[in-house]
Each structure stands twice: as structure tokens, then as C-alpha cells.
Design brief:
231 residues; mainly alpha; Fumarate Reductase Iron-sulfur Protein, Chain B, domain 2; 3 domains; 14 helices
Amino acid sequence: MGKYFDMLMEDVRMREGLHSCMNCGVCTGVCPAAEFYNYDPRQIVNIVQTQDDDAIEELMRSDVIWYCGECMSCRPRCPRGNTPAYVIQALRTLSQKLGFFVESEKGRQQLALKRTIGENILRTGYCVTPKLVKPELHPEQGTVWEWIYENDEEIYGQFSAAYNRPGAGALRKLDDRSMEELHRIFDVTGGKEFFDTIEKHSDRKAREMGYDGADDEYMMDTYTKNSNEHY
């Protein structure tokens, strides 16, 4: 009893986000995600503060903790000063560290985030760049985006003379010194180790599901397939 709660309390977001929930439900009432998903942040906070290991582990294995959009609408409205989104962030991190995230459909998508946004940060210094938003991965962007994607140098070059090149301004190519510093930050803070943990657990789950490890096929399937059981 309380093992997972104690581990959660090691996360500063948990200590900042949970003081004394009285189950008023204001967080759920203002939550945009609760309008679309089978999602109740009040219930999540209530489960966590029970300190019940089985219930907390079930949360970390579920899709529920991945529905939060981290908009922080809950933060200024809680009469007790709680931040359910912080609690959910702490749950997500612990779920990833312990490998529970691969047991849910939404959780398994963390591999795609790591390989796109995560690796793009280490490769370019940016979370998202135009070339990362590939039309085949984002068909919702439509045909206009396909044209922009194919003509990015010409289009973005009109707004920045340093687009994807050394210089000053948005979307410039970062210099080697800046990139080396960024990599050191990831090394010192454990970011790269965290990425490796996501890869390790994803590979294990992929093999359990019959894939040849966490290959491109597994990543694309987890990224694009949706059971539609979340609403």
C-alpha cells in the first residue's frame, strides 16, 4: 500500500499538483478532454490520493492518463489549489519508467513521439520543423500542406533568409556549439536514458504482439491505428 504513491511523490509535479482534493469535480467540468473522451480528472486524482497500489497501477496501464491535453484549465479553477494535469504528468512519467505505458493503445504511441519530436530535438534543436510533418503521417493537413511540404525552401525562405541555414532568425540551422550543449543537457538530465527506456519497453511489447521488435511497422501501426474505444 502506497509504494507507487511514494514513487509519484518523488516527482516535483506531484508535490505541486496534489494538496487535498475534496472531489468537487470542477476540474472535470472545465476540462476540454472530458467533453470528448471517457475521461474524468477528478476520478484520477481521487484514485491517486487513496494511495492504493493496485488502483494506481491500473491507471498507469490504461489509456486514461494519455487523454489529458495539458491545457492547464484545471489549475486556476481548483478551489484547493490542486493541478490535476501535474498529477497526470507524474503518472505518465512513472508509467514510462516502469514500462506500463505499453499496455495501452494511447500509451504505445509514446514511441512515435520519441522517434519524431524527441529525436528531432536531438537532430535539429527543434521540437517540430516543417519537414517533420510528413503528409503521409498527417493526411488531415490536406493537399495545401502537401504543396508547402514539397516547396518548403521557397515558401519559408520568403519569411527567413536563414531557413535551414546558419544565421539569425526562426527555423535557422543551429550551430554545432549549441547542438553539443543541447546533447549535454539531455545526457546530464537523463533525457537520453529516458528515451532508451521507452525504446526498451516498446521493443519488448512489440515482440509480445508478434512484431519483429519495435521496428517501423510497429511504430506506424501504433501511431495510425485507433480502436475508437476511447470516447
